[in-house]
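User: Please fill in residues for this 661-position structure.
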C-alpha cells in the first residue's frame, strides 16, 4: 500500500509540473504575441484601425508663393470654401436638389441623380473653391446635409504679367507650366485631409466638426524677374507685334554681368487664372522652347571669332561686290550695292557678302568651335521646363553652307541662347548661365536654396569683346541699320537680324521673315542685354524697322526705372511709356484731380495718383518723359512731388504703393 501511495504522489507531482509548464508556455506565447502586436507592428495595426474607424478625404494642399525679386507676389494660394453633401442624412433629396441646383448652376435632374446614387455615403463633393458670395447663397437655403470645407486655390494677382515664366496649375494641385512645373516638388505643400469617424459597426458618423490633418504650406520661390520691367517688356513687345502686323513675338531682358533674367515676354499671352480659355500655343514659352534662324544678329559672333583668331583686323576691308556674289554654286545678295567696306562697316551695314568672305577666311572648324563656345546648339541650363537646344550644321560644310552660316542662316538658336551669347560679348568675353530663380525659402522665411551667378566659360578675350562692342555701337548710329534702337543719353551696342523662315511642308525658304534686334546698354558699363524678336511682320521684314524701336523703348524705360545714370553729360534718363491724352478739368474741379496731368505755360502739374495701381500710374506717365520711380506694390498711397506741383523731365518723381486694406 505504501508503494502504491508513493507512486500516486509522484504522478500527481508530474501532472502538476506538466500543467504548470503548459500554462507557462501559453503565458510566454501570449506575452510574445502581445509584444509583437503592440511593439513591433504597432504602426501597421494603428493604420488598419484608422482605415476601419476613419474615412479620409484629400484636400488640395497649399502651394508656396512665387514672387519677383522685390517680393511682389506673382502667384499665391488663397483659402476658399468648397461645398460638399452628406446624402445619407438627407430626408428629402428631390427637394434639396430642386432648391440647390439653380444656385450651383446645374440642372435639378443631374444633382438629384448624383445625390441619389450616393445615398449611402456621408461625403461627396458638390462644388469646389466657391466665392464667399456663393457660400452665403447656399447657406441661406438652410438645407440639411450641405456643409463646407476650406481649401486653397492658386491665384495670379497680375493676370498676364510674367504668365509664361510663372506658369500655372491644373484642377489638381500639380504645376503644368513654367516655374509651377519646374519647382513643383518645392512649391507643393503636404496634402490636407478631411477626417470623419466611424462607429463600432462601421457606420459613418456625421461630418460635423471636421478637422484638417497633415496640412502644411510649400516652399516660397523668389524669382530674378522684376515685375515692373516685365510689364515694360510685355507692353512694348505687344505694341511692336501689333503695329507691324506680326504673328507673334519674344523679348528677353537679362542682367548682363550676372545672367539674371529680369524679364521674359511672349506675345500672344494668356491669363493663368483662366488658362483653359487660351490655345496651347499661347501658353507656350517660345523664348525658351522654340528655336529660330537668327539671321544677321549672328554676325556679332562671327566677328568675335574672326578677331580672336586674328584672321581679320579692324584695318581690313572687303569687296562687297556691289550687292551680288556667287560662291559654291549659290548667289548671295546684300540689300544695298556696297563696294569696299571695312570690317566695322560690314557689321554696321549688315553686309551678307562681307560676312561670307570673313567666314571663308575663318573656316568651318574654327567658326563651329566658337559658335559652340558661345552656347549655340546646346541648352543654357536655364531653370525653366522644355528648353530647346537649337542646332549647328554637322559634318562637312560646303562652301555655300559656310557662307550662309556666317550670316545666320542654316543654323538655329533660342531667344535665351542668343541673349546669353551677346551678353558674353558685353561681359568682356565671359559667358554666364541665365537663370530665373533667386532663392527658395520655407514657410518660416528660412532660405533652403540660394542661387548665384555662374560662369560657364570664357569665349573670347576682353580686348576682342571691347572691339566688337565698339563695332556694335556703330550699328545704332544714325546711318546704321539699328538706329531705331538708340537711347538718348546712353551708348547702345546692338545688331539687327532678318532671317527667312523655312516652309515646313517644302523644307525650302519661304517669303516669310523673322525680324530681330539684340544688344546691350550702356556700352561702357553694360547693365542690360535685350533681345526683341518679331515673327512674320507684315509692315517690313527688317529687324531694324520692326524690332529695334521696341528694344529702344524697353531699354529707355528700364534704365530710368533702375536709375542708371546716363553716359553723356547733360542728359537725364526719361520714361517713355504710352498714356491716354490729358483732359481739361471741369469747372470748379481741382486741376490736379485723380489721374490728370494739367498743362501750363511753365510745364505740367503733378497728377494725383492716390488709389491708382502700378499699371495705371505707368500708363498715366506715358509720353511724359518723367524720371519716375515706383516703390512697393498695391495701390498708390504717397507721391513726390505733391499733386498740383509743377514738374519737368528733370525732376525726380516717385510714387509709393501699399496693399489695400
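Assistant: Residues filled in for all 661 positions:
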Amino acid at each position: 500500500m505504501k508503494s502504491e501511495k508513493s507512486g500516486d504522489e509522484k504522478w500527481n507531482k508530474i501532472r502538476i509540473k506538466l500543467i504548470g509548464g503548459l500554462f507557462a508556455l501559453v503565458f510566454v506565447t501570449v506575452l510574445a504575441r502581445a509584444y509583437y502586436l503592440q511593439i513591433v507592428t504597432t504602426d501597421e495595426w494603428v493604420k488598419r484601425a484608422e482605415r476601419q474607424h476613419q474615412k479620409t478625404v484629400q484636400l488640395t494642399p497649399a502651394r508656396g508663393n512665387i514672387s519677383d525679386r522685390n517680393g511682389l507676389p506673382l502667384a499665391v494660394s488663397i483659402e476658399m470654401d468648397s461645398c460638399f453633401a452628406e446624402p445619407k442624412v438627407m430626408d428629402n433629396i428631390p427637394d434639396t436638389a430642386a432648391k440647390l441646383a439653380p444656385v450651383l448652376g446645374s440642372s435639378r435632374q443631374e444633382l438629384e441623380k448624383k445625390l441619389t446614387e450616393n445615398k449611402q455615403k456621408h461625403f461627396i463633393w458638390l462644388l469646389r473653391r466657391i466665392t464667399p458670395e456663393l457660400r452665403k447663397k447656399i447657406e441661406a437655403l438652410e438645407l440639411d446635409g450641405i456643409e463646407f470645407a476650406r481649401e486653397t486655390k492658386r491665384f495670379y494677382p497680375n493676370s498676364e504679367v510674367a504668365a509664361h515664366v510663372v506658369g500655372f496649375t491644373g484642377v489638381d494641385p500639380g504645376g503644368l507650366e513654367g516655374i509651377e512645373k519646374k519647382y513643383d516638388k518645392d512649391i507643393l505643400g503636404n496634402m490636407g485631409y478631411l477626417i470623419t469617424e466611424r462607429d463600432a459597426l462601421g457606420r459613418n458618423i456625421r461630418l460635423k466638426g471636421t478637422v484638417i490633418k497633415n496640412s502644411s504650406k510649400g516652399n516660397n520661390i523668389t524669382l530674378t524677374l522684376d515685375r515692373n520691367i516685365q510689364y515694360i517688356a510685355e507692353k512694348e513687345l505687344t505694341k511692336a507685334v501689333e503695329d507691324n502686323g506680326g504673328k507673334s513675338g519674344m523679348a528677353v531682358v537679362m542682367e548682363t554681368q550676372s545672367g539674371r533674367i529680369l524679364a521674359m515676354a511672349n506675345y500672344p499671352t494668356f491669363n493663368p487664372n483662366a488658362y483653359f480659355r487660351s490655345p496651347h500655343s499661347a501658353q507656350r514659352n517660345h523664348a525658351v522652347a522654340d528655336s529660330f534662324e537668327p539671321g544677321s544678329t549672328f554676325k556679332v559672333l562671327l566677328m568675335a571669332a574672326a578677331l580672336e583668331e586674328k584672321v581679320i583686323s579692324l584695318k581690313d576691308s572687303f569687296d562687297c561686290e556691289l550687292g551680288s556674289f556667287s560662291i559654291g554654286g549659290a548667289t548671295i545678295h546684300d540689300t544695298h550695292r556696297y563696294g569696299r567696306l571695312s570690317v566695322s562697316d560690314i557689321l554696321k551695314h549688315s553686309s551678307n557678302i562681307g560676312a561670307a568672305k570673313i567666314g571663308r577666311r575663318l573656316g568651318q572648324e574654327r567658326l563651329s568651335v566658337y559658335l559652340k563656345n558661345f552656347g549655340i546648339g546646346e541648352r543654357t541650363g536655364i531653370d525653366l521646363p522644355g528648353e530647346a537646344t537649337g542646332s549647328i550644321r554637322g559634318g562637312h560644310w560646303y562652301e555655300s553652307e559656310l557662307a550662309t552660316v556666317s550670316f545666320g542662316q542654316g543654323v538655329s538658336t533660342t531667344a535665351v541662347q542668343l541673349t546669353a551669347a551677346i551678353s558674353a560679348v558685353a561681359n568682356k568675353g565671359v559667358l554666364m548661365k541665365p537663370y530665373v530663380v533667386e532663392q527658395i525659402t520655407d514657410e518660416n522665411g528660412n532660405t533652403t536654396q540660394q542661387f548665384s551667378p555662374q560662369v560657364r566659360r570664357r569665349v573670347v578675350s576682353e580686348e576682342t569683346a571691347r572691339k566688337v562692342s565698339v563695332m556694335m555701337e556703330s550699328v545704332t548710329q544714325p546711318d546704321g541699320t539699328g538706329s531705331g534702337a538708340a537711347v538718348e543719353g546712353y551708348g547702345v551696342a546692338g545688331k539687327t537680324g532678318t532671317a527667312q523662315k523655312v516652309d515646313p511642308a517644302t523644307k525650302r525658304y519661304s517669303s516669310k521673315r523673322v525680324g530681330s534686334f539684340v544688344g546691350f546698354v550702356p556700352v561702357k558699363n553694360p547693365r542690360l542685354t535685350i533681345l526683341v524678336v518679331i515673327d512674320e511682320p507684315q509692315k517690313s521684314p527688317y529687324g531694324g524697322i520692326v524690332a529695334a524701336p521696341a528694344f529702344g523703348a524697353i531699354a529707355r524705360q528700364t534704365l530710368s526705372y533702375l536709375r542708371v545714370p546716363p553716359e553723356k553729360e547733360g542728359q537725364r534718363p526719361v520714361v517713355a511709356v504710352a498714356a491716354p491724352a490729358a483732359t481739361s478739368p471741369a469747372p470748379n474741379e481741382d486741376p490736379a484731380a485723380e489721374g490728370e496731368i494739367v498743362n501750363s505755360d511753365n510745364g505740367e502739374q503733378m497728377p494725383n495718383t492716390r488709389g491708382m495701381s502700378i499699371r495705371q500710374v505707368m500708363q498715366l506717365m506715358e509720353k511724359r518723359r518723367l524720371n519716375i520711380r515706383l516703390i512697393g506694390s498695391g495701390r498708390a498711397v504717397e507721391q513726390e512731388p505733391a499733386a498740383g506741383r509743377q514738374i519737368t523731365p528733370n525732376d525726380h518723381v516717385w510714387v509709393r504703393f501699399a496693399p489695400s486694406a
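For context: Residues 457 and 633 are 38 Å apart (CA to CA).
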